[in-house]
Amino acid sequence: MQDLSADVVIVGSGPTGSAYARIIRRDWPEARILMLEAGPYLRAEKGAHLDNIADLEARTAAEIGAQGPTRSAYAPITEAEWNERRAGRFDGSLLRRQGLFLANEADPHDETLFAGFAAANVGGMGTKWTTGCPRPSQSERIPFIAAEQMDEALGLAEDLLKVNKDLHPNDPGASRLREQLGAMFNQGRAPDRQVQPMPLACTPTASGFLRHGIDVILGQMLEESEETFRILPDTGCRRIIHENGRATGVEIATPGSNDTRRVAAGTVIVAADSLHSPQLLYASGIRPAALGRTINDHYQVTKLIEVETDQPMQSMSWIPRVDDWPFSVTIGPTSANTMPFPADFKGQPVFIGLFCASDVDPGNRMEFDETRTDWLGLPTISIRARKTPGDLARLEEGKALVARITDALGRSAPGFETVVLPVGSSLHYQGTMRMGERNDGESVCDANSRVWGFENLYVAGNGIIPTVTATNPTLFSVALATIGARQIARERRQT
């Protein structure tokens, strides 16, 4: 078998890994880039979003194919579970979504339960995400990255993702709703933090819209020769090979196989997600004290309401996080036709989703078990996390806020109570490879996402975000990836 080598090896094919590839190509045109993905290609359009598949049977088959270690049919919600959800209680179907796994042995009703994610396919979460791309608030930004640099990076991320700031600009129903919400929340807010359309990485079409995947980020790179850019599907990374603070390559294998091979690399970027990137670092003997610590996830409060309107809304609205207000709220239309069991609606069904910031606690952490390996041959993951008193207080405040919004816009849908989703359900966990200003044992990487103590090893994804956030983090983590990518191109083109 021919030996592989590349100037840059990227482990993971999701939005941040793809952003690294695209910006390195822009700034270092001659770079040879190899991307590794543990899962398969699921579409002829490489890395395209699965929700754009019109045929529902074909979409379901693709979603099953993306489940990584457990490629089996999703067991749908039962009527009993649906009634539990309507009553605001635990609903077991939420833990059967494609790719989810329980990351500890807690009882499903225990507050320490954490749901992780292990799906794998070319495009990563870029094939499955909801495409929300709001900008972080001032307090969510990283204090040691200059505001001008961060603004530039966020703008570049919006260009890469092709973010649409207002998907349905002529939506009178949504305009009316935003006026109502604005009267409640806009006072004292800067213009960019007032109630507004949710920015989405989508393209409108005559019949709706298309969600953007990594095919949009990579663009013409997908047409390149394998000599310059190649994605290796069904290829797990077993470890990063390194010596004296320098990554020299990676060891790869087909999932389920013990036949490994080496890939020589000039630079390695680990972009396998917030759980599996720390797992790979640990398996490679790269174990800074902060690795896997301070795992942090938004808590989610959801509510289904009815809105009486003669102008049904089409688009999503957003109440942004501001510094003294630890919430980010999305409000948008839903359809009774998508509900698993009939429900009697007298108005338009509208969904409220509130993300609630949670405390950064070093005791909330990942643990790795080298005596057991997972489907990729890596140490198994478990997660220990508890809500702090501050978290519980904010959750109660968040539930009260959802009730206020409900009363202002309409009424609670009959039989539908407010629901707090299991921790981890947002799939937005952060902090596991946190970024730091200095190598003081409290972080894993520097402001350019380079792992402390290494010349040429970088990490990417939501896991590097060190701040307390409530805002959807994808745009933020893609922006940070562009900073790291430009650093790599600057250094490597000079050698």
TrEMBL record:
Keyword Oxidoreductase set for record: yes
InterPro entries: FAD/NAD-bd_sf, GMC_OxRdtase_N, GMC_OxRtase_C, P2Ox-like
Segments forming domain Glucose-methanol-choline oxidoreductase C-terminal: 365-481
GO MF annotation list: flavin adenine dinucleotide binding; oxidoreductase activity, acting on CH-OH group of donors
Superkingdom per UniProt: Bacteria
Cofactor: FAD
Similarity annotation: Belongs to the GMC oxidoreductase family.
Protein name per Swiss-Prot or TrEMBL: Uncharacterized protein
Natural source organism: Paradevosia tibetensis
